Amino acid sequence: MESNQHKGIQPAERLGHVSEYYFSRKLKEVARLNAEGKDIISLAIGSPDMPPSEQTVAKLCEVARQPGAHGYQPTMGTPELRRAMAGFYRRWYGVELDPETEILPLIGSKEGILHVTLAFVNPGDEVLVPNPGYPTYTSLSKILGAKVVNYDLNEADGWQPDFDSLERMDLSRVRLMWTNYPNMPTGGNARMQTYERLVRFAREHSIVVVNDNPYSFILNDHPMSLLQVPGAKECCIEFNSMSKSHNMPGWRVGQCSSNATFISWILKVKSNIDSGTFRGIQLAAAEAYANDAEWHRQANVETYRRRRVYAEKIMAALGCTFDSSQVGMFLWGRIPDVYQDAEELTEMVLHEARVFITPGFIFGSNGRRYIRISLCAKDEKLQEALCRIEQMVAGRPR
């Protein structure tokens, strides 16, 4: 009967180019297993489990109680938030940004991927996307009619772009290049040499390089920005996000920074899509940008450093190898040759040890033999996951 109700109605053709997001689909299965009493420990998603700073929450509550705070807000963001974002870049990266013209607050970086692609890419144009890389770079490009051209990242190169290989490509139709340093999912750290080469590459080929930079504070004592490179602002865009660095994933506050012209083009798109974020969230986010170095040290370095010890033991128990110098809130490891691919291992771990970890294939073909473990779980959960996996390994035939 349901099929008759929708007879003759078909989805837009663009939906044929993408599938449901892996985590959206897999979390339904995890929910079903939990409903059956399986008690799955999730080490899959990078959603910080710690709260924002106290002053951040206090400011949200204070503003929410103000009768005049609940109306529409400017799409460009409140002056307080833009000034705080500029101050954040000046303080931590030594980068000067004009809060009036060179910063655009975002409802999270994922929104920014949509807006930037709409602002710079015509249907049929090409977009350079890293492999492995964040799946949304690929899916949104396809939805918007752009042609995705992958460029390889390899462990042997520290997951940095191979510029010699890039230079051999036909770049005549490329409009955007997505980069993500510190890198997710691999944990490859930002390098000034890479940033400098990216700026040179952007200039030489008239390509806009967009660096997605939400992980620079996580397990990292030296945060870096692409915009530290002289001239980067004229040909590059950088996203930053409060989701990871300030424990605010559900607040949906991000930042887009570039030259005034690029920002005006992106704002033209954004102003036709949303009507601004709740004033309380904006002013509380501005408060969060004032968190001191000690808060960041404890929340972004010490906590994740302690949890990484458990993740490394889980990798070792599974026979995986990994680079101990990687940063960020995940641990990325290569699986043993005995497994056909990463999903064979992650499915075994899910159904036998009741621990959900991420197979690397979802980030591209270069992730097929890797798994990713999230550090966004309490110490006791990580310890329990390690115990379950060790028991699983001990009970399997050798």
TrEMBL record:
<dbReference type="GO" id="GO:0008483">
    <property type="term" value="F:transaminase activity"/>
</dbReference>
<dbReference type="InterPro" id="IPR004839">
    <property type="entry name" value="Aminotransferase_I/II_large"/>
</dbReference>
<comment type="similarity">
    <text>Belongs to the class-I pyridoxal-phosphate-dependent aminotransferase family.</text>
</comment>
<protein>
    <recommendedName>
        <fullName>Aminotransferase</fullName>
        <ecNumber>2.6.1.-</ecNumber>
    </recommendedName>
</protein>
<keyword id="KW-0032">Aminotransferase</keyword>
<dbReference type="GO" id="GO:0030170">
    <property type="term" value="F:pyridoxal phosphate binding"/>
</dbReference>
<feature type="domain" description="Aminotransferase class I/classII large">
    <location>
        <begin position="38"/>
        <end position="389"/>
    </location>
</feature>
<dbReference type="Pfam" id="PF00155">
    <property type="entry name" value="Aminotran_1_2"/>
</dbReference>
<keyword id="KW-0808">Transferase</keyword>
<dbReference type="InterPro" id="IPR004838">
    <property type="entry name" value="NHTrfase_class1_PyrdxlP-BS"/>
</dbReference>
<dbReference type="InterPro" id="IPR015421">
    <property type="entry name" value="PyrdxlP-dep_Trfase_major"/>
</dbReference>
<dbReference type="InterPro" id="IPR015424">
    <property type="entry name" value="PyrdxlP-dep_Trfase"/>
</dbReference>
<dbReference type="InterPro" id="IPR050881">
    <property type="entry name" value="LL-DAP_aminotransferase"/>
</dbReference>
<dbReference type="InterPro" id="IPR015422">
    <property type="entry name" value="PyrdxlP-dep_Trfase_small"/>
</dbReference>
